[in-house]
Write a structure and sequence with these properties.
Elements: H1 6-20, H2 24-36, H3 40-58, H4 67-76, H5 78-86, H6 109-132, H7 138-168, E1 178-182, H8 184-187, E2 196-203, H9 219-235, E3 245-247, E4 260-262, H10 263-273, H11 276-282, E5 286-290, H12 292-306, H13 314-333, H14 345-359, H15 371-379, H16 386-408, H17 421-430, H18 436-461, H19 470-475, H20 482-492, H21 497-509, H22 521-524, H23 527-535, H24 540-553, H25 558-566, H26 568-580, H27 582-590, H28 595-599, H29 610-620, H30 626-649, H31 655-685, E6 692-697, H32 698-701, E7 711-717, H33 729-745, E8 756-757, E9 770-772, H34 773-782, H35 786-792, E10 796-800, H36 802-817, H37 823-840, E11 848-850, H38 858-872, H39 884-893, H40 899-922, E12 929-931, H41 935-943, H42 951-974
Parallel strand pairs: 2-3, 2-4, 7-8, 7-9
Antiparallel strand pairs: 1-2, 1-5, 6-7, 6-10, 11-12
Helix pairs in contact: 1-2, 1-3, 2-3, 2-4, 3-4, 3-5, 4-6, 6-7, 7-9, 10-12, 13-14, 14-15, 14-18, 15-16, 16-18, 17-18, 20-21, 21-24, 23-26, 24-26, 24-27, 25-26, 29-31, 30-31, 31-33, 34-36, 37-38, 38-39, 38-42, 39-40, 40-42, 41-42
Length: 978
């Protein structure tokens, strides 16, 4: 966007050099930054005021590295620019997280209010800068704004509760049982820059306080006073502004109702008077501050009101009414309303909430508060096609980003696009578009998609027929020519229409499929709808190819064809799965009977622990036939991996739970194979008085296994001697280990169970497969190198004699691993090893990054934790754990790692593990390489929950930010100059 007057800007820049103390290079940089910004004149005016104030207040100019952030803020927000001019020292901490200082209850409430408002401004500046620079995706921006609000409520409750207890005494039971339920966007962690915060105040039970400096009062009076004071602390408009506007209208009986309710009163109200719209309001409710278990108890009691066990089709009529009301309000306001207008934010939210309320009573996995996360849950519940999910998510991200840009200008609670043409042009640039026509075209497309999806929902759920896709009908018409079929597939979105047309012909030749001319009429009529679901998958060509493979290997495909035609949810989920994950697709193709898990996925448990897995295996493995046992073990593993993977891609479980469950599954499989191997070998050799333990190392040892991880194993036996049949213990246990490895790796029809790596044993591949207790002790006393000690830091027993491992840990491993070392020499050796891995193995280029071995990758985090353990483990036994994350937590507790370093390493590790998991679930192979561009990056970004046209860029920005923070923290831990 051009300057209003280049000459006036030049004069202002010349004055600024003197007023702000900037040298010529800094003035030139400021000029260039403003020129590239969305609003050059506004950016320069705001920056000039802040920089001059900074010089006047502090006596020295601002640091040059702050200029880029300052210009980004001033070009987007007059409100924030004014705060930088009023508090110029904020320039020195721009972009850094703030800490909310606690206020003693003996200090005046005005001090609390001032601290809350200053904290709010600093945090909003940080969040706004992350948003404007593209360093944070939408979900992180809204989450941080929501957590800012929660922190303000928490501090207000703490302060005022202490004051009131001093006056009236503690409530019965001795605790303040008061909780704030965040509703709406606050509850969903989706707050925007100028949101009201919708809250509902509640307390645990009725009673009386004990009395203090003043008289005792009822709980209702005590908590009502607390609610009033908290509301004033957050929402009062003072000289320094407000923290958030507080809206209490969602409480029972609205503005005429009491400001606070007991749990029982809340329950009674919703049982007797709860309206349909209040179910929608409670769907996002989340305890955010105070005694959180009080809020959780209330939501547990209200669940029957919100989540009906039967399909509540009345929700659709309620949706019609809510939509009509929203659009009337939008029409009354005039202009383009991003929230309430057709295809706006509210329609996306209504769409998601309607499906949640319709199906969430029976499928608890759908009870997700966040809109984008809920879209993922609906996708993998088979209630939403991948294309619809992507269109809704991308529209939602665009609309919310525009809402932020509009509100950021003056902290106005508006959802209207500006009427002024110049301001609309600035808005387009602030949102990352080259000009206004580009933004308007994108906005029209996305709003049209939302409106179409919303109308489809109202029609279908209200009993109308789903629209027939003429392109799908043409592609599945037996009379269509090859050219017509390929053209229809191209129009449906297939990237390889000729190859996919060949797949359709392959399906048509297979009797019993919906595409076969011999299919029964009711099945054949479902073929276009099934193909339309395939077309809506992330990769339609891959999805159709996998579907053809599935029907090609079924002995009798008719039953599966009838299932897919008769159950749109199952067909939709299968299409999404086939089009997004080679890994899960191949699990199904190897074991087609697992399709039953798709049908009953709602009843599949989120988490199954090791005892439960072992117990089920004990009942499923046949007693006699070894091959049948190994086949059943592979089917069991495939079932469990599919269960874990489905919950993972649906966003129902966190990455830590994924890793822990995969590790427990491996433990159960290794234990079962050890039992088989030992029984076979003992038959030939006779029993031994000695014992064997299978030790897990690497990711298995740390319970951080991924979908394609090898199992790093070490076999340790207790000592020399012979079996009853006269075979040496070493040979006997070597045979058991070899049979165990064979059982795990044998490529049966169902494939191998796991790949096994035993190279971490003493002397590596050149050493014996099994090692005795004494040999292990001798080796680690004399020969063990640093990398071998690192490997054993993650050792834990997986199967066999756990007591033997504990003895080895106590007498051999701990003395060897945690002996006094030269910290500087250890750091040099680890850093040298890490550098060689990065240069020689990672193979990073400008087009590909490596999430594991590359700069700032997973190995940086692991090496940082292992360095701290090796150097400090002798004096601090509490840090001796095989888990990387637990080791880092322990190091913080012991004062060995700064909280900032822990935050960078822990957040980076979690992000990279999740990224690695998605990489490996999308492609059916071990892979750590992250593409920096192209279709695969876009697909990966979507499967990680990113949305909008910037999804790939947001993912890359997060990756660069995470790896840079990890590398910096890693170098600081090792004491290497940053």
């Amino acid at each position: 966007m051009a300057w209003e007057s280049r000459e006036r800007a030049a004069r202002a820049l010349a004055r600024l050099g003197e007023e702000a103390g900037l040298d010529a290079a800094a003035v030139a940089e400021l000029d260039a930054l403003c020129d590239r910004s969305a609003d050059p004149d506004g950016a320069l005016a705001g920056a000039a005021r802040a920089l001059a104030a900074r010089k006047a207040r502090c006596g020295r100019p601002a640091r040059r590295e702050t200029l880029a952030g300052l210009v980004a803020i001033c070009a987007a927000s007059k409100f924030l620019a004014s705060h930088l001019a009023a508090r110029p020292r904020l320039l020195d901490v721009l972009g850094r997280p703030a800490r909310l200082r606690t206020t003693d209850a003996r200090e005046p409430a005005a001090l609390l209010h001032r601290r809350l408002r200053r904290f709010k401004v600093r945090e909003v500046l940080r969040i706004a800068l992350a948003d404007l620079s593209g360093a944070a995706p939408l979900r992180e921006v809204t989450r941080d704004l929501s957590r800012l609000a929660a922190a303000a409520f928490e501090e207000s409750i703490r302060y005022h509760a202490a004051r009131l207890v001093g006056i009236h005494g503690a409530p019965e039971g001795g605790r303040v049982g008061f909780c704030v339920l965040g509703m709406g966007k606050l509850g969903g962690e989706e707050l925007n820059f100028s949101s009201d915060v919708d809250v509902l105040y509640l307390y645990d039970r009725d009673g009386r306080t004990a009395g203090g400096s003043g008289p005792p009062v009822t709980h209702l009076a005590f908590y009502a006073r607390l609610a009033e004071e908290v509301t004033r602390a957050i929402g009062a408009v003072e000289e320094s502004g407000f923290v958030f506007r507080v809206d209490l209208d969602l409480r029972p009986e609205g503005r005429s109702g009491p400001i606070v309710s007991s749990i029982r009163g809340l329950e009674a109200y919703y049982e007797a008077q709860g309206a349909g719209w209040e179910r929608f309001a409670l769907l996002k409710a989340r305890p955010i501050a105070g005694t959180l278990e009080v809020g959780e108890e209330a939501l547990h009691r209200l669940a029957p009101f919100v989540w009906r066990k039967y399909l509540h089709l009345g929700a659709i009529e309620e949706m019609r009414q809510l939509k009509a009301r929203a659009q009337r309000e939008a029409a009354r306001r005039g202009g383009q309303d991003l929230k309430l207008g057709p295809g706006g934010i509210r329609e996306v939210e209504f769409f998601v909430q309607a499906l949640q309320l319709l199906h969430g009573g029976k499928d608890a996995h759908l009870r997700e508060r966040g809109t984008l996360r809920a879209l993922d849950r609906l996708l993998f519940a088979g209630l939403l096609a991948s294309r619809d999910r992507d269109e809704l998510a991308e529209a939602y991200v665009l609309l919310r980003r525009l809402e932020h840009r509009v509100q950021m200008v003056a902290e106005r609670q508006t959802h209207q696009l500006p009427d002024d043409a110049a301001e609309r042009e600035r808005l387009a640039r602030r949102a990352g578009y080259p000009d206004l026509p580009a933004l308007e075209a994108e906005l029209a497309l996305r709003r049209g998609q939302v409106e179409a999806r919303f109308d489809d929902l109202l029609r279908v759920a209200g009993g109308g027929a789903a629209p027939v896709d003429e392109r799908a009908e043409k592609a599945t018409d037996p009379a269509a020519t090859e050219e017509e079929r390929a053209a229809a597939l191209l129009a449906l979105g297939f990237a390889e229409p000729e190859a996919s047309a060949a797949q359709l012909l392959r399906l048509a030749r297979r009797r019993g499929t919906p595409f076969s001319p011999t299919a029964v009429p009711e099945v054949a009529r479902g073929a276009p709808a099934l193909l339309a679901e395939i077309a809506a998958a992330p990769d339609p060509d891959q999805a159709l190819r996998h579907l053809a493979d599935l029907f090609g290997q079924l002995a009798a495909p008719t039953a599966t064809a009838e299932l897919l035609v008769g159950s749109p949810r199952t067909a939709r989920l299968l299409a999404s799965l086939f089009g997004s994950s080679d890994f899960l697709s191949r699990s199904l193709l190897q074991n087609p009977e697992l399709i039953d898990q798709l049908v009953h996925r709602g009843s599949a448990p989120l988490v199954r622990g090791l005892p439960e897995l072992r117990a089920e295996l004990g009942t499923r493995l046949p007693a006699a036939d070894l091959e049948m046992q190994l086949g059943e073990l592979r089917r069991f593993k495939s079932e469990q991996v599919l269960r874990i993977g489905l919950h993972d891609v649906a966003g129902a479980i966190e990455i830590e739970d994924v890793s822990a469950q995969l590790s427990d599954l491996a433990d159960a499989c290794v234990a079962a194979c050890l039992e088989m191997a030992a029984a076979e070998t003992i038959k030939r050799d006779g029993p031994s008085a000695a014992s064997l333990v299978v030790v897990g190392l690497g990711k298995l040892g740390g319970r951080e296994l991924g979908y394609h991880s090898d199992l790093d194993l070490l076999f340790l036996y207790s000592g020399p001697g012979q079996t009853a049949g006269g075979r040496s213990n070493h040979e006997h246990f070597a045979r058991i280990a070899q049979r165990l490895i064979s059982h795990l790796t044998l490529p049966l029809r169902e494939g191998p169970l796991y790949r096994i790596d035993t190279r971490l044993r003493p002397s590596g591949s050149a050493g014996p497969l099994v090692v005795s207790f004494d040999a292990l002790a001798d080796y680690h006393k004399k020969l063990a190198r640093l990398w071998e000690r690192q490997a054993l830091l993650r050792a834990r027993p997986v199967a066999g004699d756990e007591a033997l491992f504990e003895r080895a840990r106590r007498e051999v491993l701990d003395p060897s691993l945690y002996r006094p070392v030269d910290a500087a020499e250890t750091a040099r050796e680890l850093y040298g090893m890490r550098t060689r891995m990065e240069k020689e193995i990672a193979e990073e280029t400008t087009s590909v990054a490596n999430a594991k071995l590359g700069r700032g990758g997973l190995v940086d985090v692991e090496f940082a934790a292992q360095y701290l353990q090796l150097v400090h483990g002798e004096a601090h036994p509490g840090i001796r754990t095989p888990s990387t994350r637990e080791a880092l937590k322990a190091c913080v507790r012991e004062g060995l790692l700064a909280p900032a370093g822990f935050e960078a390493l822990s957040r980076g590790y979690r992000f990279l593990r999740r990224l690695e998991g998605r990489l490996r679930i999308v492609r059916d192979r071990p892979i750590d390489q992250v593409p920096r561009s192209g279709r695969e990056l876009s697909l990966l970004a979507r499967r990680l929950g990113y949305a909008g046209p910037r999804a790939p860029l947001d993912l890359l920005a997060d990756y660069e930010q995470a790896t840079a923070a990890v590398r910096e923290a890693f170098l600081r831990v090792l004491g290497v100059a940053v």
